[in-house]
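Slide 14.
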Amino acid sequence: MCFAGSGAGRRRRDRFVDLDVRRRVDPVLRCFDSRFDPGVLREQVEKVASAQQLQGLPLRELERRFPVAARGHEDALRGSLVLHRSEEVANGAHADGVLVPLGLDDHLATEDRTVVPGNTVDAAIARRLGLSSIKTHLLEQVESELQGRPGARRDITYSELVEVFLERHAIVAKPRTISELRWRLKQSEAKFGTVPLAELEGMSDEIAGWAVTLGERVRYPLMAAMRQALEAGIRYGYLTQNPAKLAGPNPQPSPREIRVYTPDELKAIVAELGPLEGAAVRFAAATGLRPQEWASVERRDVDRKRRVVLVRGTKTARSRREVPLTAAALAALDDVPPRIDSRFVFTTTRKLPGSNEPGPFDIANFRRRVWAPAIESSGIARPARIYDLRSTFISNALARGLTVFETARIAGTSGKMIERHYGALLDSAHESLLERLEAGVGG
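Slide 15: predicted structure.
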């Protein structure tokens, strides 16, 4: 039987046309499964309100197993069961998700009645709702489309988002940064790569469980990369929240113990190296540059007159900073074997792609084939990393009275990072700072 199959049905339908927008919208929304295509919902919303009328209206969440109200002609949220079109209701679960199946065994009551009388409702009506909670984002997406804005691409997977993020981030980041991010993100892709973003958005619990399985030293960088990619997804309109952030805090691991080479240890290491490698190690310890920074210094970057070296593109392609050249740094540069076939100060035998020019110093090859045997032959204590040459410079700078701000600016890092890793040295420098203050105030 059809609701609109008679004159009485049409008149009943017309009486509800002028009701409040919310009164008209809510029963429509209650009739939809949360798994419905938003386009279906959009067709219904367009019939009852414009986008401007919908804005700001609260959408009440439904819960499973909500009891049906006592009045047979209303649903569990006290909304009249009214269909604004001809629709035959089966005696059972309706294909379009009508919440209360009706057994219309009798004709409707008199024409003046505006509701379905209780005696037309089958006595065996199930008194529990069969829908999951309706998600707010469905209404948000419909409203966006009504206003002419495209809906979010929630059908793409996490792996597809990672590729989009890396492609766009490469515009401002260096290739080395992109390579490092790609490696870090592959770890989370192995676990969540095929998951659609619409599903991943609600998987903060699963992400938190996966983070627990990661090692202490790698958890922070891997989770930080995942957070960064998902945050980009929010900016692109693919997500409304970041499940990696909702998974909980991502604290940094405790800093590694600082290794500072003594002058005698540096001499012992240099004694085991050739002229080029020895000069490179001395230059690194005298400037505090990161390994990838000093390995790619070009001759044009060295300004002997101003006694500075220009460091290019460490964090981003446009980043720049000048580092002072001490007498020790200049002496190291003087001991570099002269070459005219390469632009780099410290070179390698490996040629640049598509060129006969020797490329920059190969850190990975140097660490494996030269540095490790030299440490073993010198007999100095381990661990002894190439990066500790930078720690040696920062420690010496703080010990000689440079402020955290000055040291951080030279080293190309933050004051927070200096304090985190070199706090003990700052405490020991208290006496030196006190002497400088006394000398500057009152003579």
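Speaker note: The domain at 263-439 is CATH 1.10.443.10 (hpI Integrase; Chain A).
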